[in-house]
Write the structure tokens for this entry.
Amino acid sequence: MALFDPAAATAAYLAQLPPEAHAKAQAYTHGGHWLLLWGFLVSVLVSFLIVRWGVLVGLRRRLERRKPRPVLVSLVVGIVYLLVDSLLSLPWSVYADWWRQKQYGLTSQAFGGWLGEQAISQVIGAVLFGLFLTALYALIRKAPRIWWLWSGGLTAVFVTAVMVLSPIYIEPIFNHYTPAPAGPVRDQVVAMAKANGIPADKIFVYNGSKQSNAYTANVSGLFGSARVAMSDTMFKQGADLAEVRGVVGHEMGHYAHYHSLWIAGIMSLLAIVAFFLIDRLFNPVAALMGADTVKGVGDPAGLPVLSVILAVLSLLGTPLTNSLVRIAESDADRFSLEHFNEPDGLSKALVKTIEYRAATPSRVEEILFYDHPAVGNRIRKAMDWKAAHPKAD
């Protein structure tokens, strides 16, 4: 009997897609890299326009004449800024988040449906981040010299609260979640959950095809609200039981190893660094933007300045944040293979994700731009696992 060759098996999986499909995936992926730069430039332009318009300074002055509490000023100015920013950025969002997906066949959602969901999302985001900004400016007022140090704790609290509440109150606004229906798939998933100490009632199917044609599953929530959710696209694209085991096993890895929690913790530490730099850079950047009427970092009318600094830091920090997520994704793959031993099921599922994530980038490209390990590398690791752990006939 011929020895199993992981390299040949990996090549065979990648060859399931024709060259034109790989070329299309590569074009989509490379275009996405450029979107990072163009999106950054759009955000800087929008922030500059808001500063030059003077709407936030005018609003802050009108509110201050009525002598309300500073908390109310921060909340109102923050919400108005976020809504104005969203409105001015809408043409870019239409192109990047809907039209481009439509052009590549990654969504079947009509523009009206997308726009309605976008409006709801922006309103929810404005309220949530408005509350966060209100607390942030309260910190600046209470501890003007070391507010950035406390910002990490504030970020941790905010991120944790959103993660806990999102599956309960936010995600159901956009999609319908139901327990996996009775049948072989549910039986398999329940058995997998029970074998690994994961509550079997935390496995859901949702109508993800409403927004995207992408083959996907996810884990969301935290503590009691955490759950694994499979998009109906998995079943519309003919996922077999081996694929379900491989994919759900991956998502269970996120759940079992608390990836969401430790990523939130690391992001909170990074927030301290970011806010420290904002504290030091705010005044010179405000001067460059012509924000002469902004009173300093504690003035909510200076949110566009803060946004520009964050945009720069976010762009420069993309390789770091992507690497953090890639580590978690690799660990989830390893969990799936170790606990469910479905290298072929996982590989078949990964092939279906190539259409929105080119399979064989260079190592530098993967480090800089990929928030998941490259599909080619993931399949190769699965095939290496298969070679080292052959199933009994």
Q: What stands out?
A: The CA atoms of residues 212 and 306 lie 33 Å apart.
